[in-house]
């Protein structure tokens, strides 16, 4: 960049050069190398750059900034006699050059952080192509600048281009080695290049590699490696604490269950692949089409697809059943969009096929890539070269619709098809609570090592004290005596080695301190939670018949800790069902002509005339404005009448909408009196805006009813008007407009343009009083429409002279057949004709708010969640929608940041911070101020909460006393400059001090940049919600991504973690299911830590009493079954079914959601309290039976049996104390697990070969046995019970207060209060 603008500003034409100069310009060779020098090796095209907001596209700033000039002269060598670059056809010609950099340079100069982030966040910057604009006069380089920014830091500019070129590297690589496809000659095509076959494989494993590969993937979990090491240690003879088979059981069980699940899923993939590969298609062989299996199809073969069949590979269309070469396809399987798309066969090939000619040719195309919206290729037939684009290719997975047949040649097959290249899964996300769990797991590992060291040191000391008695002590005699005979020798390794073996043996005994069962338990609980979320009838959208979807099972609990919601506007907050409301034509507004009774005034009879002429009827009728209808039915004379005619002609012609006429249908009774009959027409388009505009044109008598690749037919008030389409420049994010070149029957050629006002007003013709009046009136109408929340577009046109047409056609042909930088060259070509336009008017389309959006946003705000809206709409529209959905309120102070340079943005941010007393996040006194100024509508947060969280939670509180809550409104152009390192902190400080942030005119990458700004600078959880492909980057960047099943396809849904039909369901998802899931999973993790630790501590106390010998009083099977069978089921059921509060209470009091922000269900304090409770309970478990039987002759296996049943009952009673909602299945699982434990013990004690044979039968007869269990439960849980009672009485939490209120309401309802006293 070399100016204050994102992409340099533009200039005004000064003179008209000769055609020779234009020819020279098109064939000059210049480029800027990685060192910034000009070299003669790449082509240069003449064009103009698209201007940014409030820039005149042709306003050349003649004053050069000295610093930039000197800088450029250092980087560019003199051109010598390369020629003077001038203008052509009244349009300026600027040299656009693209910088290239080596990947090695990128790796050296960029830090990992910089390589990770996408610095070009969009705005006026093209995400795929960035170029610099210079104007040269003779040998002296001149830099075109906006004059806003005085100097530009060279290093920052170089770094920016370096990072951008990283994104371009893959795109450029496609054209370095083009692919050659010989039509109908697969042998020649594949022998030379060895292209991929059409067989696909989505499976992960084969029979041979399943076991090693699956185990390798599973052992990526460090815990599995830990348990594998434990099992391996137990196989060594000196360390065989448990039976060797028994020690392997837990790990083998987990590995087997996971392997079976993975194997079943992969078997289904194999079956799907086999069915897909064995499908058949018609392939041209020996002049006839014969069936051939998909997996046998090769690149270069000609394939015929019939109606409703699926395309087997990526093919270039050669011909269709339609004489004009048009084909309709449905891309549902590829991008999720249900609307039909149009694809075209070249007229040259279509005619040859219809004539029955078997032809051959060569297609030169780009290498396989995953961009489904672009295709760059050329077709050569009989020495002629024709361009091919995305509209000429049909992709694998699409279906042929409304077309009898289509014939194409295979260019990409199998794994090289775009569908297969795009089959990668969304990036894996990990739960925040699970990362915290690793911290506690580390502490448990420390406890484990401490216990093992205590046992090992104790063993060493004991052996040293009794080393003289080792020959006579059991287990340490040198020789065992068996039946008065010398037996085998005991292997004694000496005190140091025995101490070391004791340490390893202790690790084996205490291994379940790290709960392996927790991983499986969490997966099962999350699966159960997802089942109930999917089945929630309150989140079912009847309009789209879509249910809630859980596409990721890893982050259910994160829904309960969301602090930021980043939302798209169109289709997310609004319905994305566009309705044409108003129009400004030639400076006059239409659309509000209402009679006194509120209905449209139709007494003028214009509509009757229209009805008499109309031959087509839309499926959804639009009520036209009577005054505008009257104007349209005047004679075609006068500026206003001609402008209105061209206005609606532009709406009907400048689009990619596909008209689908159906059979004729008789009209209503009133119409049949006139003898009228209509053909019903339906419009299919990729954009709801385009469909609305075409439908509006039809309502006013300009009906598009036929479209081919070369012409369109419009019914103008009953008369057919055939228009030849000479070229179409589709809408792109940089130009922000669309244009079509049309030839009328009288050979007049016009260019019809529509686009955003920011890009259209800069290319209108000037110096005409009438035009200025129309422009000002239209601008006023646009501001009015935006304030009403309507979506606006500006419509303009111009006539093309023969000279201009020839020049444009030549340039257009060169650009459309280029294999390198085709999009850039087409953009430059469009600039040749998109200038000096005549303003026709503007349109206003309404996109209504979805049902329940204001209420949902208000509830989220009360819950302490900030809702930021990131939209591509203009600022006024976004503000209007913000007010209507209660995102913005009248009492808010609005901070508007609209900067056009880095220095200007910095000044605006600093001024706003100073005015509203916003301090940086590192201010030392911020915490105390926030605590003092805590507002009553926000719940209190602990002191250890992160600083940024305080700043964000108490947004605008310090300012609230004098300024009220703050709202930040910022545009995408400013974000281009702000999303840099030095300004990000300023934006972060200001944005997090505001209650609301509204970002307008933002590009997809800028949306991701805003989310990344919060993620990187705070610990707060983020959620992004959207419905379109432009929201995918934002959804994937956020901690939680939610897709809306809307009108813009399913790209957002396919990239999301959760999907639903309406924005209002987000309220229930977070406040109800998010709260429940977080509370359940948090308790589940703490309970699992406690459950296993209390069992291990009980064994630890026993070992201390047995000379540190690591012997166990419990059987091997009891130790294994404890976590897997005895105590697992109640944990899973409670994790799925427990509810601390009802959904009605959670929705009625949104502030209860803040419990997740405060981490009430899982934090370090709770962990240490749980560990202290565990320590007490383990002591009670060990010492109560010890004192009860201290004078008895009970054997060790009987004592172990008592400890086993006691610990199972104790941990289950501990769980029962914390259950909030008792249902039938909860009772079954909890009490059933105790019964199952007794049953297993009876079975194990009934096996004669086991040492504990018969112990349970003797113990059950003793009253001391039952008394011991009772004492253990009462004494062990008494401190916990007392603390819970005290805490609920004196320090109740919000959840407990709400729960008590619920219980009181239920009691009043149970005892029969009056109906009006019952709370809903």
Automatic annotation (TrEMBL):
Membrane spanning residue stretches: 442-463, 500-520, 1089-1108, 1166-1184, 1196-1215, 1222-1244, 1264-1283
Residues that hold Mg(2+) according to the record: 568, 570, 1027, 1031
Active site: 568
Gene Ontology molecular function terms on file: ATP binding; ATPase-coupled intramembrane lipid transporter activity; magnesium ion binding
Superkingdom of the source species: Eukaryota
Region: Disordered, residue numbers: 1-26
Domain P-type ATPase C-terminal: residue ranges: 1053-1293
SUPFAM superfamilies with a match to the protein in the record: Calcium ATPase, transduction domain A (SSF81653), Calcium ATPase, transmembrane domain M (SSF81665), HAD-like (SSF56784), Metal cation-transporting ATPase, ATP-binding domain N (SSF81660)
EC number: 7.6.2.1
Pfam families recorded: Cation_ATPase (PF13246), PhoLip_ATPase_C (PF16212), PhoLip_ATPase_N (PF16209)
Enzyme kind, highest EC tier: translocase
Membrane topology: Multi-pass membrane protein
Residue stretches making up the P-type ATPase N-terminal domain: 181-246
Keyword hit for Oxidoreductase: no
Subcellular location: Membrane
Listed InterPro entries: ATPase_P-typ_cyto_dom_N, ATPase_P-typ_P_site, ATPase_P-typ_TM_dom_sf, ATPase_P-typ_transduc_dom_A_sf, HAD-like_sf, HAD_sf, P-type_ATPase_IV, P-type_ATPase_N
Cross-referenced CDD domains: P-type_ATPase_APLT_Dnf-like
Any Gene Ontology CC annotation: membrane
Biased composition range(s): Low complexity: 1-18
Family: Belongs to the cation transport ATPase (P-type) (TC 3.A.3) family. Type IV subfamily.
Name this protein carries in UniProt: Phospholipid-transporting ATPase
Organism: Abeliophyllum distichum
Lineage: Eukaryota, Viridiplantae, Streptophyta, Embryophyta, Tracheophyta
